[in-house]
Amino acid sequence: MQTSIFGKPLSEVTIQDVKIFCDKQVREGINLDYKRDLTSKSLLKTMAAFANTRGGFIIAGVEDEDDKPKLPIEGIEWKESLPLSVTSMIVDNMYPYLSVDVHVCEPENGKTFVLIYVPESHEAPHWLFNRTELYVRRADRAGHTHWEHFATDGEWDFLRNKRERSVELRNQAREVVKYIFEAENRTDKQRDPMRSFALGKPNYHFGMLRTVLVPLFPREIMCDVLTLNTHLTAEHIPTLLGDDEYPQVDSQTKVFQEGAYKYEADSRGLAQSFSLLTRFGVVATYERVLKDQKDEPNDFIYFDQALASIEVTLRYAGKLYDELAYTGSVMCSVNLATMDNTALIYKDHQPLRMMPRNLQGYFAWEVEPTVSELNDPATRTEILYEIIQEFTRSFGYVGDSNQLVDEWLEKSGLYPTA
């Protein structure tokens, strides 16, 4: 959880904490700014400049005088819509979207303070006003009127290159998942040769539903390998399927240079489940969902198992990112390579002729949620709606996939009901 300049999590800061902080007369700087209200254009400039530079904290409801809080501080009028006004300002005027933490202190006598934490963004550069203005934060504004200034050509090149390096790092981080999984499979001498290749599809990934999340623009190591090893070993959360837990409890945890993982195979040597975390923020789940039969047209996938695998990975990733104080966006990809004409079983006693089938034996979809969306049950449900709609459509299912999702979420007891 993000620890603020007040020495406690932002969500726990009170009006009294703000008053004590302002009494210390801490000067504005590269990471701190005071704002009289939430309506000025300068608030947008400051948020964008913080994101493009080193991040920072904004205290709204405090007027500054010579870069220090003007005492006594007065606060601003409390409204329930204050957090939404900040988010709307960003959505309407900034590109790409910037995820910030907003905390409104419990009001006293109708007054409050709005605290905004802007992380240094891995998605920089963030432009304002139809991509016409690009700001960075000064380290010292001596001789200048404002803390923010237009980015120079050199600063623009730096921000652009930083983003390109992040994209390259993201691609490398995703490749690590494939490499470790395939390497683990190659060491298994009992692998069933009859299923090694089918219609040119990758043998190791065949029949595995793969859900992989990675920070959208990673740039630095988020934690050490031993921490990830401990997390995989000790942290378990329930799935939608009752008694099951994630990550799988019985598998041994292994470490490698970039992270830690669990791998489980059946008696034939076929991979059944694979969970991996890396120090650059990758959270990956591979789960064998294909139930193969002797007669190929009868191969099938249970809808509930596929949904549970995707859902628990999203929930686990959100929890881990929150613990690592990562608040940005992530790229979430869900893929499946299976037998052509594989059937989808989504209800009990489903007649064979009524089973929707994936004629191509392939599915792929990507979404880019924020960490806060992963951790909010309502927005996480919306993400599941989107993924599962595309997943069931790949099988030719034309019914209401949202209803299928809702039934399992409600049955699990893990989601609050209206």
Outline of the structure:
With 418 residues, this protein is α+β, with helices and mostly antiparallel strands.
Number of helical runs?
A: 9
- What is the percentage of strand-forming residues? 15-25%
End-to-end gap: 28 Å
Shape: elongated
Radius of gyration, Cα only, in angstroms? 25 Å
Helix content: 25-40%
Total number of β-strand segments? 25
Poorly predicted runs are 189-202
Average pLDDT taken over every residue: 87
Structural class: alpha+beta
Give the neighbour order of strands across the main sheet: 16-17-18-19-13-22-25
Largest sheet: 7 strands, antiparallel
Question: Can you walk me through this structure?
Answer:
This protein is α+β, with helices and mostly antiparallel strands. Helices cover 32% and strands 24% of the residues. It has nine helices and 25 strands. The protein has a seven-stranded antiparallel β-sheet with strand order 16-17-18-19-13-22-25, sandwiched between helices. Strands 1-2-9-7 form a four-stranded mixed β-sheet, with helices on one face. A four-stranded antiparallel β-sheet has the order 6-10-11-12.
